Amino acid sequence: KMGQKRLFVAHGQKDGLVEISPLCVLDFYVVEGHQRGGLGRRLFGGMLSAENVTAERLAYDRPSPKLIGFLRKHFGLAKFQPQANHFVVFDAYFSKGQQGQQGQQGYSETT
Q: Which of the two residues, 26 and 101, has the higher pLDDT score?
């Protein structure tokens, strides 16, 4: 399940809160009998293609430890700041090469 959300997230310890409007993964689960067979990677890859976005440009709502491991293994995503709202936005979201790739999914500084 996917959806656009307006979030205020911590971006570094000195930068304070940042307002972003990323596409969010609200729910992603592969039933245990079908895990570890490549199905999750194909489903997730298909979703990324359909939404025309990369994994680092998404926010993840309360991701499970399994989803965090999946993202680390398949997309190299590991670093993120813990958020009070329980969303995970990986540090790669804010990489300079990624900004502007999705115009409506940019970010702005908030004080």
A: 26
